[in-house]
Amino acid sequence: MAPGQIVKVLVSVVVFLVVAIWLLAKLATSGFNVDAEVMTKEAVAARLKPVGESKASDAPPGMRTGEQVYKGICMSCHATGLAGSPKFGDAGAWGPRIAKGWDMLVNHALHGFNAMPAKGGATDLSDDEVKRAVAYMGNAGGAKFTEPPIGGAGGAAAAADPAVVGKKIYDSVCVACHAAGLAGAPKFGDKAAWAARLKPGMDEVVKIATKGLNAMPPKGGYTGSDAEFRSAIEYMVNNSK
Predict the structure, then answer these.
(1) Which ranges carry the Cytochrome c domain (predicted)?
(2) Which pLDDT score is estimated for 27?
């Protein structure tokens, strides 16, 4: 084979190898390049769907605080400023938005705005929970909003009502152990079991349960307020007398 032909063959082989390596690299990295600024609402919602459906916290629906909603839902975008969302704690980014007023911010959060889907993609959130999240994030950015009280118009009083809030907490958290008396927990409706524990008084029972005892974690794993947790204990006690 002539020297000129050998050179042509070698050049062809090198070009082939370079192209092959480039194609393999392109194939291996395909699907990983995402332009956050042009993500559609559908794309953002798809990413948030698993979070929005189940991870806002263990608190009963409608009773999650702004912080709980932020940590469970909103931080997926707002922690890093994904898709143009104002980054949590960034006063410069939040300032112009806060200037537009509470109503405008809430409207955008409830119904969606730009790349953000309605309620951040978490359709199980109540309107008040979304408003609490707006207040929590806005305040971290320099606002002075007030979160809607948990329990509705009645505020703290409604939040501490054992028959309403206490039952919701029991049904969503406490039932896991107290329905069957699991791990030594006093069984719901068992008068003898509860009477023995109530001898030191309700306040002492609440204090012990809040800190956790034996197999029971602090507040039974409930992440809401102490007042709400107390209402769950009162609900169980009231139904075990």
Answers:
(1) 61-141, 161-240
(2) 59
**113 in Cβ contact with 119 (< 8 Å):** no
For tokens 């392109």, name the residue. 26
> Distance between CA 215 and CA 222 in Å, rounded?
14
pLDDT by 10-residue block (mean), the chain, 241 residues = 66 72 63 44 48 54 86 92 91 94 92 90 86 93 88 50 86 91 90 90 89 88 84 90 83
At position 125, the amino acid (one-letter code) is L
For 79-111, b/e burial (b = at least 16 CB within 10 A) is eeebbebbbbeeeebbeebbeeeeeebbebbbe
Phi-psi region of 122 (alpha: psi -120 to 50; beta: other; left: phi over 0): beta
* pLDDT confidence of residue 182: 87
Which pairs from 101-108 meet CB under 8 Å and 24+ separation? 102/134, 102/138, 102/145, 105/134, 105/138, 106/130, 106/131, 106/134
In terms of C-beta density within 10 A (0-12 exposed, 13-18 middle, 19 or more buried), how is residue 72 classed?
A: buried
Closest by CA position to 41, among listed 75, 70, 77: 77
Enter the tokens of residue 192. 């003898």
- C-alpha to C-alpha distance for 153 and 173, rounded to whole angstroms: 24
